[in-house]
Amino acid sequence: MNYGEWVLLQDRRGRNYLFRLKEGGSFDTQRGSLRHQQILEAGYGGSVATPQGEPFTVHRPTLEDYVLHMPREATPTYPKDAATIAFLLDLAPGMRVLEAGSGSGGLTLFLARAVGPGGQVWSYEWRERHQARARHNLQAFEDWHNVTWVLGDLAELEPPAQPFDGVALDLMEPWNVLPALTPALKPDRFVVCYLPNLTQVVALLEHLKAQALPYLHERTLEVIHREWDIRPPVAHPSFQQVGHTAFLVQLRRLAGN
Ligand code: SAM
Description:
The protein is α/β, with parallel strands linked by helices. It has helices spanning 36-42, 63-69, 79-88, 106-115, 128-141, 178-181, 198-210, and strands spanning 6-11, 16-20, 26-29, 32-35, 47-49, 55-59, 96-100, 120-125, 147-151, 164-169, 185-195, 215-221, 228-231, 234-237, 247-253.
């Protein structure tokens, strides 16, 4: 563990605090301060306490922790959904994947990890500020040097020399970009659209039909995690749950245009 690295402190109620360790820095609470040096000496997995006796455990943030706490311009794809998108795209190390929009870089981080250093992520974003945020968030946490950032409208995509193994779309109107990206996707591979509203899912399926685009609608699903509060004799579903985030629509590209 070194200065400059991310750390996640967890208090006794399970609340998390994410920040970077700075030489001479301190973490201030209502029950006293912790010097960053103390946290560094405790190391990941260690424990620290303020002079007033408030305890914290010290952790290396997971990708989920980071995406939930990182600075944002646009709402990141929720981690449970981002992980499922990588699974629905059937990604493996070495593959090439296209995504839009980059937003805050949340989904980019998951895709970059899934395809690994031998793979490639092409991330499209038409807002400069969002692209800068996404790029910074990725570089600040984990950079496999496998992301190409493209500033522009995905609807104007020129077919690349090499087609992609998958496409992830987290934007409002995916039907506007599907005609341009279809020739860029290998046959029998997947597009996954992340859509908060069911009306968007219906509009997408209607557009596919109206535009006669070569896709099979494989499935539409929601990812539901139900967390439990288990502190015997208490054991029941947590009263605070993550509710609806979005629908995931998995489309399989058929051969032909
Ligand atoms: N998945 C991102 C993340 O995890 O941080 C969040 C994406 S955000 C909800 C949607 C982004 O898509 C916005 O930043 C928006 O500017 C961008 N966008 C929308 N339509 C686009 C298009 N046609 N081409 C490129 N970017 C687009």
